Amino acid sequence: xxKLAYLHEPGVLHNLKARYDINEIYTYTGNIxxxxxxxxxxxxxxxxxxxxxxxxxxxxxxxxxxxxxxDAAYRLMINEGVSQSILVSGESGTGKTESTKQLMRxxxxxxxxxxxxxxxxxxxxxxxxxxxxEAFAYxxxxxxxxxx
Length: 148
Description:
Blueprint: H1 9-21, E1 26-29, E2 32-35, H2 48-55, H3 66-80, H4 96-111, H5 122-144
Antiparallel strand pairs: 1-2
């Protein structure tokens, strides 16, 4: 998307469809990651091997991915002490929950430790908190008059 000569609707839509057709569901426009919901599981995009690749790569060195966004935020927090926020936005059914899970999984992977015998790992604890976080967001949106 960053290589488009003109950023207009037909060009963007064509680019997204062409990438979607080859299971490239992520693309950047500037430092914004655009995700097209594949409406099916693509497990190779969220495994530990993929996290290991983004863990050692600079932003933009590998294909667009939520792990690249999470890694950039993580590095700024750790190396520079700068607070970070990642905004996940989209219409209902676009995959916000899955994208958020990937971001949280990566951050927990980077900062977590393995589970001791009989306990839950940091990754498990963070992912289990997601429904609670979504409930808070939904209540906030209801209070603001927007339920989507």
